[in-house]
Amino acid sequence: MRTVVYVDGFNLYYRALKHTPYKWLDLGALFRRVLNPKNQILAIKYFTAKVAGHARDPGKPIRQQTYLRALAACSTPVEIYYGHFLTHEISAPLANPGLNSGRSPRFARVIKTEEKGSDVNLATHFLNDAWLDTYDCGVVVSNDSDIAEAMRLVKQHHTKCIGVLTPGETPTSFQLKKHADFVRRIRKGALRASQFPDQIAGTRLRKPERW
Q1: Number of domains composing the chain
Q2: Backbone φ, ψ for residue 58 (5° rounding)
Q3: pLDDT exceeding 70 applies to what percent of the chain?
Q4: Between 54 and 42, residue with greater pLDDT
Q5: What pLDDT is attached to residue 90?
Q6: Do 160 and 105 share a structural domain?
Q7: Residue 200 domain-assigned?
Q8: Angle (deg, nearest 10), helices 148-157 and 118-131
Q9: Is the same domain home to 72 and 15?
């Protein structure tokens, strides 16, 4: 069965990888392990955005670029698509404004950074690839219900199998689950068993020390 996997990179990272030793993740090895052998993985589409460094962690962009280069070098084709970060100043309510509400401020001006575009890009590719008949089975790696409408349209207009791989421990979104033919959880054991070697064969790429 021709299969394309669509990965919401930040959803996967924040739900399953952050604060773990499994960030040096071989996506091809992971999906071959989690999916059925009948799923012939033609491509993995990875949706992310370029992170910026800051005073506490100036090496963050270098680590990300090293990982993205490792993905591009792996045996299963990985196509990388970029969204962007939007940073702006907003007014936010204080969690504990204080007892003397008449004198203590209730709001503070804060800098808010949001990753934009990845979920929209993923949904667009998922839907467009169905129209182009690129896959028999489209697998979404996310727990973001914003993708549900694209899944619904694929089920309505195409004879396609849809899978959802849920990162992390939270329950799978009902909105995603109701359009899926199968749902599987990405467990820590699969992450542990699907790591790149410290040095990528045939390259000079090495796992960053902080990973």
Answers
A1: 2
A2: -70, -20
A3: 83
A4: 42
A5: 55
A6: no
A7: no
A8: 10
A9: yes
Q: Are residues 93 and 7 in the same domain?
A: no
- How many angstroms separate the CA atoms of 126 and 19, rounded? 29
- Residue 88: its pLDDT value, please? 45
Query: Do residues 6 and 106 share a domain?
Result: no
Identity (one letter) of the amino acid at 14?
A: Y
- List Cβ neighbours of 190 (8 Å cut-off, separation of 6 or more): 30, 33, 34
Range of the structural domain that residue 165 is part of = 2-82+117-192
Tens-digit pLDDT profile for residues 73-112: 877 889 999 974 445 455 667 666 665 555 667 766 654 4
95 shares its domain with 124: no
Phi and psi at residue 176, to the nearest 5°: -75, -45
Q: Do residue 21 and residue 34 come from a single domain?
A: yes
- Residue 81 and residue 9: Cα distance in Å, rounded? 10
CA angle centred on 37, ends 33 and 40, rounded to 5°: 100
pTM of the complete model: 0.85
Q: Who wins on pLDDT, 25 or 202?
A: 25
pLDDT tens for residues 144-195? Answer: 999 999 999 999 999 999 999 999 999 999 999 999 999 999 999 999 999 9
**Letter string b/e over residues 77-107, b meaning 16 or more CB atoms within 10 A of that residue's CB:** ebeebebeeeeeeeeeeeeeeeeeeeeeeee
Please name which of 74, 81, 13 lies closest in space to residue 48, comparing C-alpha atoms. Answer: 81
Q: Judge whether 87 and 162 are in contact, CB under 8 Å.
A: no
Q: Name the amino acid, one letter, at 113.
A: T
Residue labelled with tokens 């839907």? 127
